[in-house]
Amino acid sequence: MVRKVTIKDVAALAQTSVTTVSLILNHKGQRFSSETIDRVHKAQVELGYSPDYFAQNMVNKKTRTIAVLVPDINNPFFSEFIQGIEEVAYRENFIPLIYSVGANNQKVDYYLKELIRRNVDGFILAVSGLDINLLAQLSTQQMPYILLDQSEKQHQSDEITVQDLMGGQMATDYLIEHGHRKIGIVLPANSAWNIDQRLLGYREALAAHDINFQDDWLINTELSKKGGYQVTNQVIASGVTAVFAVNDELAIGLYRGFAEHQLNIPENLSIIGYDNVDWCEYVTPKLTTIKQPIFELGQEATRLLLDRIADPDKPIQQRILAVSLIERDSVQPI
Ligand code: RIB
């Protein structure tokens, strides 16, 4: 049987100690002469030595892993977001570990604690209901993390926000510009922070146009295709002529519900969505929506986090990303 090459073999061939080899191979050998460093690298190549991952980690205390917590990996919004994360992480030689936690706060707490114990280098947290004490604990332990999307911002760490309030206003203004004055909004009860902002934007736009909000225009359901589908009857009964669905998944659920009632979009109901996931272009009629820069959100979150890992003492970074309206075929004037 072929014997595995060990660090001792490298040290023997380079005529130095195991500690010296370990420090040099872990990029901590600045104090050694260039001759010693060369000898160690030559011996490593000659013997084909590859340091054991866990042993190396014990010296570095770095795993080059980042943990990403999202609510729902099934939603194309989060798949695209994760692709943005991967794109940067891969380039920088970091491994992202992805967790889809649903609305389960216990799971979030468990993952956070367990992943700290397993030495991840930082967290991207896009989930709601984060325990403030746990976040404070992350800060005390100098564990880098970034809050975005559904997470409520605490201004104690790096954060990215998207212009959700403006997005809500834009969506509602657009429906009003098309002559609609009975405008519903479909969203989850006890929404996450970012979705509440969209609701606020909707309310502000109605008020700015002297439209009196009516309670039955606010339709609560879970944030999913199924959620949209399940409130079809309620939307019909409310008598609205247009709906702002706070994400595209809700809109597609309504598409199915309306089709099953032999009702047409946009003739019987105008719909505007939110996110601009890729299938907006592939449904009939193509969905008009508010675009979030989803891929860039993932990229930017990862860049900020890796910068923080590299330089824990830099000032806290806050970024705001813009939204825009993508006009397609699901809204018609009345
Ligand atoms: O589609 C998922 C929705 O939840 C998005 O709008 C995103 O912002 C998240 O909060």
From TrEMBL:
What is a GO molecular function of this protein?
Answer: DNA-binding transcription factor activity
Keyword Metal-binding appears in the UniProt entry: no
Concerning CDD domains, the annotation shows:
HTH_LacI
Quote the Gene3D superfamilies the UniProt record gives.
Answer: 3.40.50.2300, lambda repressor-like DNA-binding domains
**What is the top-level taxon of the source organism?**
Bacteria
SMART domains membership: HTH_LACI (SM00354)
Could you tell me the keywords of this UniProt record?
DNA-binding, Repressor, Transcription, Transcription regulation
State whether keyword NADP applies.
no
- Every copy of the HTH lacI-type domain together lies at 5-60
Which PANTHER family did the record assign? HTH-TYPE TRANSCRIPTIONAL REPRESSOR PURR-RELATED, LACI-RELATED TRANSCRIPTIONAL REPRESSOR
This chain's protein is named HTH lacI-type domain-containing protein
User: Which source organism does the UniProt entry give?
Assistant: Latilactobacillus fuchuensis DSM 14340 = JCM 11249
Starting at the broadest rank, the lineage of the source organism is:
Bacteria, Bacillati, Bacillota, Bacilli, Lactobacillales
